[in-house]
Design goal:
With 249 residues, chain A is of the alpha/beta class. Chain A is 33% helix and 29% strand. Chain A is built from 8 helices and 13 strands. In chain A, helix 2 packs parallel to helix 4. Chain B has 14 helices and no strands. In chain B, helix 3 runs antiparallel to helix 11, helix 5 packs antiparallel against helix 6 and helix 5 runs antiparallel to helix 11. The radius of gyration of chain B is 22 Å and the shape is globular. The chains are: A alpha/beta (249), B mainly alpha (356).
Chain lengths: 249, 356
């Protein structure tokens, strides 16, 4: 099973330090981890650093991976004017670094990624015609089609309606369990993090201020200090922890 | 009720749809190739001495059977010109297609980046003042000057775009700045040059296929034959570039390195073309747009499609340049702009789906 450990990770843009000394326990496949933090805390930078797109100190240790490219990354959705169908855009994500000839297996993987997310009906649509939420799901399919062992998702639910937010996070949690895949998703909705993620990392000003099981990490004190909200966490009628925000501090 | 529901209603597997799409695109490419072959035959048939299509095909397939004058006219005089139309059309269109791709800009073409303007300036130096930028044979001073200036322009853009913080928008702006600089320099040359030299410069800038010879054709074809596979091997990465740098990067593409490599390759293609036939506008802009409308932007189809569309436009332009005013060959650059642009606008306005 794949594991990921971050050790003394740092990153900088020019002279500006964005991340410093990020050290985490080992995250194992089969889990879903939320990456939390206010705007500009360094969440996207951490993903880029894990992926090797940014240089910096420290080490990203991936062990037990069976494929050559175990990590797939879904960046924040920016839209595209490319004249491609949804199917082609997912296929091209699958085919990077491969030969120009598409094999039946590649088509099966595309079909599977679209089915996993329930967006097969979008296959023939041009990506330029999609809504923001649909584009976000296609972007998730582009990451899934790479059959990753570690899946990094940068705000995967930011453009989705409530139904699709819940569906996507449920699907990701199921896929993490079934495929022993480690999913790390940055989320702004801490209620979703409490409900769907096993562990949480909290970044503030480029530093890791908390890391552990989500229920342990997300506390009223942390919410007040890092997110500047007064909030309570109470069990709902089904016994699950529920976030109740009182006010911004 | 389970929280996990399909994000939209289920549908049958779509691999079939994709396979049908691929077959449709292969048929479009085949149709373009056929149209190109036809256009080539018409181009060969037309001229001061007119031949029937049957005669042309016979002369092409069995040159020994036809009379010596027919063979000489078709093979020695018309063939290099007709084939040059195909090679230059394909080269300019590929250059435009990849510039549009790597710069994510629908207006990018060898003209937008100042490569054609640089070439014109180099040619004008030779035509007006006999200046040779590098020592060369007299016959090749003009194309070599044009080529050197085109590559210097591309090199300047290349160097500037390697600077930290330069975005793709900045690269396009640099190109437009180059166009204005060279236009001013051209005006300066024309101000100081003799009347006769000004006429020569103006004629050169109109673009004409009649400058083609077998040796020039082999050079242009050789460059195209080398660069085409180099671009094709980046097919998936270039397609990903159209999804934006962040997405391409997330898929393992290095957008910056790829952009610079492709910029050098297509600058070479454009520079060779412009050096040999002068500035033929429009192809580098429109060829890719027509290919995009027909075939989408999967580079496995878009790249050959752009080449075929560019070649077809210039070949048809060559045919039209001979028949619009019988007895006169109108410079091809004028034809492609005058006839091609209204046709292109018609296509764009008629096309229901967004093509950029």
């Amino acid at each position: 099973m794949v594991t990921l450990t971050l050790e003394h990770l740092s990153a900088h843009y020019g002279r500006r330090q964005i991340l410093s000394e990020i050290t985490t326990p080992t995250f194992a496949g089969g889990q879903i981890v939320s990456l939390l933090g206010p705007n500009a805390a360094g969440k996207s930078t951490l993903f880029r650093r894990i992926l090797g797109l940014l240089k910096g100190g420290g080490e990203v240790r991936i062990e037990g991976a069976t494929s050559e490219r175990p990590v797939a990354y879904m960046p924040q959705e920016t839209g595209s004017t490319a004249v491609l169908t949804v199917y082609e855009s997912v296929l091209l994500a699958r085919m990077q670094g491969r030969s120009l000839k598409v094999q039946p297996e590649d088509l099966r993987e595309v079909d599977r990624a679209l089915e996993d997310l329930g967006i097969e009906t979008l296959s023939k649509r041009d990506i330029g015609d999609l809504s923001g939420g649909q584009r976000q799901l296609v972007s998730a399919a582009q990451a899934l089609v790479q059959a990753p062992e570690i899946l990094l998702l940068d705000e995967p639910t930011s453009a989705l309606d409530l139904h699709r937010q819940i569906s996507l996070l449920s699907i990701l949690r199921r896929l993490a369990r079934e495929r022993e895949m480690l999913v790390i998703a940055s989320l702004h909705d801490i209620g979703h993090a409490l409900r769907f993620t096993d562990q949480a990392m909290v970044l503030e000003n480029g530093q890791l201020v908390a890391c552990g099981t989500t229920e342990q990490v997300v506390t009223p004190t942390l919410l007040r200090h890092v997110f500047q909200v007064d909030a309570r966490i109470e069990p709902c009628s089904m016994g699950r922890p529920q976030l109740i925000v009182e006010a911004a501090v | 009720m389970s929280t996990e529901t399909a994000l939209s209603t289920a549908a049958p597997k779509e691999g079939g749809f994709y396979r049908a799409l691929v077959i449709k695109r292969q048929l479009i490419l085949a149709a373009l190739t056929l149209a190109l072959a036809l256009s080539l035959c018409f181009d060969l048939a037309l001229g001061p001495a007119r031949y029937g299509l049957g005669q042309v095909i016979t002369a092409l397939l069995t040159p020994d059977v036809v009379s010596e004058p027919v063979r000489v006219i078709l093979w020695e005089i018309r063939m290099p010109v007709a084939l040059m139309a195909l090679v230059v059309g394909a080269s300019l269109s590929i250059a435009g297609a990849q510039m549009q791709t790597i710069l994510s800009n629908p207006l990018a073409s060898p003209f937008t980046l100042g490569i054609s303007a640089g070439a014109s300036f180099g040619a004008a130096l030779a035509l007006a003042f006999g200046v040779s930028l590098v020592p060369t044979a007299v016959d090749y001073i003009i194309p070599i000057n044009a080529f050197v200036m085109a590559m210097l322009t591309a090199g300047a853009i290349h160097l500037l775009s390697m600077r930290r913080g330069v975005t793709i928008e900045t690269i396009v702006l640099l190109g437009i700045a180059m166009v204005f600089i060279f236009n001013s320099l051209m005006a300066l040359i024309q101000f100081f040059a003799s009347q006769q030299a000004v006429s020569a410069v103006v004629f050169w800038t109109m673009g004409s296929l009649t400058k083609a010879t077998w040796s020039k054709l082999w050079i242009a074809l050789g460059v195209l034959a080398v660069i085409l596979p180099l671009l094709a091997r980046h097919g998936w990465a270039l397609t990903a570039m159209r999804m934006g740098d962040a997405k391409a990067e997330s898929l393992g593409v290095n957008p910056r390195a790829l952009r610079l490599e492709v910029l050098v390759l297509v600058s070479l293609l454009a520079a060779i073309s412009v050096a040999f036939v002068g500035t033929i506008g429009f192809i580098g802009l429109v060829g890719p747009h027509i290919a995009r409308m027909l075939l989408g932007e999967d580079q496995r189809f878009f790249l050959p499609g752009s080449a075929l569309c560019g070649a077809l436009i210039l070949s048809v332009g060559s045919v039209l340049s001979k028949i619009i005013l019988p007895g006169t060959i109108i410079p091809i650059g004028i034809i492609t702009s005058l006839v091609g642009i209204p046709f292109f606008l018609f296509l764009v306005l008629r096309h229901k789906k967004a093509s950029w």
